[in-house]
Design brief:
Blueprint lengths: L10 H11 L5 E6 L6 H9 L3 E6 L6 H14 L11 H14 L6 E6 L1 H4 L6 H11 L7 E7 L2 H9 L11 E4 L5 H10 L6 H11 L3 H4 L8 H10 L8 H9 L4 H10 L8 H8 L3 H14 L3 E6 L8 E4 L2 H9 L2 H4 L4 H5 L3 H16 L2 H7 L7 E7 L8 E8 L3 E8 L9 H18 L4 E8 L14 E4 H4 L2
Helix pairs in contact: 1-2, 3-4, 4-6, 7-15, 9-16, 9-19, 13-15
Length: 475
């Protein structure tokens, strides 16, 4: 396969798919990532012409429904002479026969989408998949089996880290992440939507670089008007997306939602003990599993406070769309369909944007490292809160570097150059002094400002050794 279709922002992933497609052996690839991130689109657009079989799991479908759907796809792909399967062993036996009968030269691509939904309780799906790969597909040289799912934790637990017959059977995996700011910009330009980076950043702070969400944007509207059209008006396409996200990812999503909403109560996150206190859950009651699934699915990050022990790790909600929904969904019922257009003109918008910009920065750590010129330097990411010198002092992004420097990052979202005044200059100096005194670090602690348009040149700006702008985050 030589001809490559152009897909915005997925160059590395496409190259991986082509590498496996062009190999001289059978391949078994897992593709996973959060809902709406574009997994199915990537595989279908890249390799769809070489599919010998494609089937997708049915959300909340019983075993009989899943197998009936599989039978239908077998029929559609040319297996009309095969006896419809009544269980997964028979279903994969029919797939075996379908591949044998294929006249296609080269790799025969088998794409099983939303596999976690196929694996209903006690259905025998995994055992049948195991037998299909180990006793048939892996013995050939021309089968490219791709499994896909939005329930990333299920893929990781049951396929990537399988302890049974599928142990170490994967030949590759792709964890598909949301778009970066740069990829969002390219996506909008491809749709003939020409908006400045400041507004692209605001769109990211709401929709989080999810291609499916961005596809609803229309060039005739401003970003604020698009937000009203996509989220706030009565018939908005994403009006019920929050409820559907967790239902589609987890079979029993109530606990996941409880944890998500508990984490949303505090911007920098909570410890396990604090989550248990807020939700009533216990470690033995499934909290560890829920946290692991939320982390694997990209909604939550686990991190450590600078100078603290591992048992004091924090869990922070970092999915922009979820944060936005929890903050503003109630406004849809209380206000008219142009809520966001009007809200953008209020001081409350600046308060929301300040925190949302911090989350955006946390999702672009690699770009920050590149802007600091430390892409090749070993780094650790932390946060810090003073417990003694200045209880109100906190730094939400601390980058500890292998070259004996610690960047204390301050993130400010502004519509023009950010001006450090005397009071803020004192605040920055006191915060840095408190950090050094409380952590006893021997590394050079340097204040680092991350802003949209840079710092206004004045007497106070000169005391900041590192500056990063929004443009740097687009690199």
């Amino acid at each position: 396969m030589d001809e490559k279709k152009t897909i915005i922002g997925r160059k590395a992933e496409q190259e991986t798919l082509f590498e496996y497609h062009n190999s001289d052996r059978s391949e078994f690839l897992a593709v996973y990532g959060r809902r709406r991130v574009g997994k199915t689109f990537l595989v279908r657009e890249t390799l769809g012409a070489d599919f010998v079989f494609y089937a997708s799991g049915i959300l909340e479908g019983a075993t009989a429904v899943q197998i009936e759907n599989f039978n239908k796809e077998i029929l559609d792909f040319g297996g009309d002479g095969l006896i419809p399967a009544k269980n997964w062993n028979q279903a994969f036996s029919n797939l075996h026969a379908l591949i044998d009968a294929s006249a296609r030269n080269g790799k025969k691509v088998v794409f099983l989408d939303e596999v976690p939904w196929m694996n209903t309780p006690k259905s025998g799906f995994l055992a049948a998949l195991d037998h299909f790969w180990n006793r048939y597909a892996s013995m050939r040289k021309d089968v490219f089996l791709i499994i896909c799912g939005s329930a990333s934790s299920w893929i990781i637990d049951n396929i990537v880290n399988n302890k049974g017959g599928l142990h170490n059977r994967l030949t590759g995996e792709i964890y598909l992440q949301p778009f970066t700011l740069r990829e969002c910009e390219a996506y909008f330009l491809a749709k003939d939507i020409d908006i400045p980076r400041y507004h692209i950043a605001e769109a990211y702070m709401i929709f989080g670089g999810i291609p499916y969400y961005m596809d609803f944007f229309k060039s005739k509207y401003s970003v604020a008007q698009n937000v009203d059209e996509i989220f706030f008006k009565e018939s908005a396409p994403l009006r019920n997306e929050y409820a559907n996200v967790f239902r589609s990812l987890f079979r029993s999503a109530d606990n996941h939602v409880r944890v998500i909403e508990a984490l949303a109560e505090r911007s920098y996150g909570k410890t396990r003990d604090e989550i248990m206190a807020a939700t009533g859950m216990t470690m033995g009651g499934g909290l560890s599993k829920v946290l692991a699934e939320l982390i694997a699915s990209g909604f939550v990050r686990e991190y450590q406070a600078f100078g603290k022990k591992k048992r004091d790790r924090l869990y922070q909600l970092i999915d922009p769309f979820t944060l936005f929904n929890l903050r503003f969904s109630a406004k849809r019922n209380a206000f008219s369909k142009d809520f966001w257009t009007r809200f953008c003109m209020t001081p409350a918008h600046a308060a929301w944007a300040g925190y949302a910009f911090e989350v955006l920065c946390l999702l672009h750590i690699q770009q920050i490292r590149r802007a600091l010129g430390i892409s090749g330097v070993l780094t650790e990411i932390y946060a810090w809160r003073s417990r003694s010198h200045d209880p109100g002092a906190q730094i939400d992004l601390v980058i500890e570097r292998g070259d004996q420097v610690v960047n204390l990052c301050e993130m400010k979202y502004a519509s023009s150059e950010y001006a450090i005044d005397k009071a803020y200059d004192i605040n920055l100096r006191n915060k840095r002094s408190a950090f050094i005194a409380e952590t006893h670090t021997r590394k050079a602690a340097q204040t680092t400002m991350i802003t949209t348009y840079g710092l206004h040149k004045n007497a106070y700006q000169a005391s900041v050794p590192y500056e990063i702008t929004l443009d740097d985050l687009f690199e």
